[in-house]
């Protein structure tokens, strides 16, 4: 049996667009707005070749309410 | 018992938590491994001083003259602003490893003036320039300096010229375990009136953002009268606390949350972030602080204008009782006359306590040195929090997840959870524990708080610290590094101390430590003895750049090193384990076998050190000295003939035994005798353990009398190791005779460097090629007293070599201790060698008695070098001063090892005015 590789959610910042970006365990990307409960208000995001995502430490995921 | 001893007793018996609050706040949380989430592990550049005011910490907090509870939920510290700096002075500034020409270095002047062990009374001094702090000048000038130049210090910038600075004293006095009085006293030392903003700050460590905690702590303004303002702090676990601030002072509230706009470029969810108070005070942004007077961080904003020479005070009180209730209970103003009475009482109690610690035979200046050394040790406690598994997970390196990134360090230490108050080497330069440093710290800390010493030693052996394989964690930069195994020495020392003082040894504690140290011993034997011949490696072993090349890296020649220090450390470890086994065997026969095991193991190691390899063994018969041996891939071998502390350490593996084991267990003695008879080669080239010395004692020692005399001749030669201020780490012989080694077309050279290192090896911020280091000097003092207890007065040597003065080994030890003490004491010229050529420190009455206990000292003139506040192991000077003020040579002969921890009648102790020739 092949073990499926499940990634962890990862948090990034897109400095150009001044927004948090999350890659969820399925590999989908989301923008989080700067509001209370940002994960609840996430919007789909499609990175382009020009998108520059800078990793943010994992502990900020808790702050933004991103499920682990 | 005096009042402080009563408090220590109540803390020990858990009747009153007198140690719950203390100086547990770090002085630098930025630039640490814990806060580093960079891909490559560049801790210094990932979380910078510039970010620290705006970015919430994940693992700890920092501040000036700060305190916190022992879980660091609530913190208090001082912030200052002189009206000219670009930022509030909320934390100490210093250069990162790459910014300075000799590695990281704090560029501030602050002093730990006093502390009792329960922190019932503490005093701290910070010197704050009135001109703009020269941040950029310090960075740029230091960057431009080479490794052969001196460091550029704050005082060199001229910012203290004309005395244009404030002395800011911070004093703490506990009325009860949860009621702390705080007095801030500011002096304008300058020639003109000057304004200072004083911002006592209270905040919660941010646990709510990262730990999935639903309940959030909070601060709010509770009361305001013309006499005082009150901040109420509520934490679900800590309960309620009140900060009473003198006068009708503005309270500035914000949140201890990251300013995401400044750090990540993403708009903040709230305008109230970590640096809002800075923006309010420095930039006048009135909307930056919360008008609703609530948050998780608050500062009282005092603006003091002081005339030249004027002094002003600000009083505060951090208590678990509301001020109204305090007043109702005893009718006393929380900041009024009673405040002064308590402050005075605690100061007097501190004096009483230290009168019982500092021997009366010490001079007033010696007493000052000893008290400030101990104050530094106590101020250097810190709450240290590091959950390595969580940290790895947060950086995407979860060890149990298949899709993981490699962590730059500590990958194999995911079992680790640290969350305790620990003794740090230096809360700015080394704000993380270091295993072998800690063992030395305990030697000094036990002068004032044996319970804390025991806790510290035990902590390192707990399952949350020690690796499952038995390794003791080194330090956060790489827990897997190998430090010298001195834990057992500190453990048996601490046990004996308590036994002598209280009449009863804590054998349960000793047993539990022994079991864990047994794992550690086995780890060493299995991991660091490559050939199984009882010859050890270990890499740098704490002595950074002492070798010809980096001893922790693959050798440029290939092959490996047989290390004289690694092997000697293991011989000493064996002896210490033997001592513990003997002690435990007095009440538990199981340990008699262990004692025999360590007897034999010591002999295997000692004999391997002296006769293995013959022409290329560690002992060099021609030089009369021990060296590391380079074993080459082609089977060749070569001694690396650098005369350094590496070659003196075999002398330290010496321990006397009173013979109580063989009295209680004659059959063990028979087995040992049979072992020696069957293996005559083992004791042929070391000291014969069967030979009886003074008072029927036996001696375990690598060096026989002939070798001992030869090594001592070099050690006590002022042209080699013996400096006016203790023993150098490298012989001065190499000043004119550098050791040169060629390999792979490259030249490797070791020269005598009495001051700073001229290479970048091990960060370039420490130097073992000449300077004097207190911990290894302490080990040599210990060894000399062991030899003296065995050989007695008949064994004399010339000290210094070539002087014609003969001394017994007690006198030699006392002479070395006297020289070490002279680093800090005012000499006949009124100057303290530790301050070197810095005129202000030597001459100015506001500076000259504020002592700094540096990391190491100039090999020729005793000037302080390296970390400026490494009271940690340099604080051992307090133990050395105490030892020779309370012990006599006669006592050592009569009591043996117990003499070092048994205080004799001070009148009988030698005056230390000078050592008479024998």
Structural features, described:
The complex is a heterodimer of chains A (68) and B (918). Chain A has one domain. Chain A has 1 helix and 5 strands; from the N terminus they run βββββα. Chain A has one helix at residues 60-63; strands at residues 10-14, 19-23, 29-32, 43-45, 54-55. Chain A is globular and about 30 Å long. Chain B is of the alpha+beta class. Chain B has a domain at 21-355: Beta-galactosidase, Chain A, domain 5, CATH 2.70.98. Chain B contains 27 helices and 35 strands. In chain B, α15 (564-585) packs parallel to α17 (645-652) and α22 (774-791) packs antiparallel against α23 (809-822). The chains are: A mainly beta (68), B alpha+beta (918). Chain A binds chain B through residues 3, 5-8, 10, 13, 15, 18-20, 34-36, 38, 54-60, 62-63, and chain B through 37, 39, 58, 209-212, 260, 264-269, 393-396, 398, 401-403.
CATH architecture of the domain at 21-355 in chain B: Distorted Sandwich
Poorly predicted ranges of chain A: 1-5
Find the structural class of chain B using helix and strand composition: alpha+beta
Please give the alpha-carbon distance between the first and last residues of chain A.
26 Å
Report the helical percentage of chain B: 25-40%
Annotated CATH topology of the domain at 21-355 in chain B? Beta-galactosidase, Chain A, domain 5
**What composes the largest sheet of chain A?**
5 strands, antiparallel
| General form of chain A | globular
Count every beta strand of chain A, where a strand is a DSSP E run of 2 or more residues: 5
CATH class of the domain at 21-355 in chain B: Mainly Beta
Helix content bin of chain A = under 10%
> Looking across the biggest beta sheet of chain A, what order are the strands in?
4-3-2-1-5
Low-confidence stretches of chain B: 906-918
Largest interface: A-B, 24 and 22 residues
| Arithmetic mean pLDDT of chain A | 86
C-alpha Rg of chain B, in Å? 28 Å
SSE pattern of chain A, N- to C-terminal: EEEEEH
| Structural class estimated from helices and strands of chain A | mainly beta
Terminal residue distance of chain B: 40 Å
